[in-house]
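re: ur question from yesterday

yeah so i grabbed the chain u mentioned. its 232 aa long if i counted rite. heres the sequnce exactly as i have it in my notes:
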Amino acid sequence: MKDKALLAVVAIVVIIIATGILVFSLGIFEEHTEVNTKVLSGIISGPANETPIENSSFSEELTSQNWTSSYFDSTHGVLYEIAMADNFNFIKDLFLHTGCMKKVATKEYNGNKWDIYHFNGIDYKSKFNSIISLGFPGFVYLCSASGENGEYLVIVESSYVVSDDTLDSDLFKNYCEPFLNTITLKNPTNPPKEYQILDISLNDYNTLKNFVKNNGWDAFIKIASNPYQVNY
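ran it thru and got these structure tokens back, copy pasting raw so excuse formatting
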């Protein structure tokens, strides 16, 4: 791997798609929060507040255009993230090939078929600690559904609520599943491209995909986990 520019892009992507917003406290919920975005509507089990644009995990541009949004339940330490794009294939493939995410199930809720994945943020942080010194959620359920005009992504994450790679954990049963049960997907046209979700240029996005195509995911993961040990 001789291209330092590619290495820089790899590092940026790994940071962007794994950056979590730290959660703080734990409690018992008595409230529900109605969510009504450009992408979907639903009800969160707990008192959640929409994350300000400047604090969102997504780009300010896409959040301001309502393609992405985040809601944080500080009472229970649970973060909900919502996004729509043409697809999320690169993001899902990257997480799967790190070995830190596995597909748990495909299940229908409220007429929508969701692919449900469980992501172990602790393992991910350990694997990529050489280039990341940011805060990460402990565990994440990543749920994706296909629509006529694009793909929907719902992420439910927490460092405090018990979670594992099943559908029986507290995080799934008490937070993720109730939200999925209430979601109505909307069908806006012309959603952003995946490279815009990653907040990188189309050229850099194509460079990454071509590298994986030509060298494989193992080579990509090796670079991402040990960027400063690569010989130029």
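noticed a couple things. The longest strand covers residues 101-109. also Residues 19 and 218 are 22 Å apart (CA to CA).
anyway ttyl
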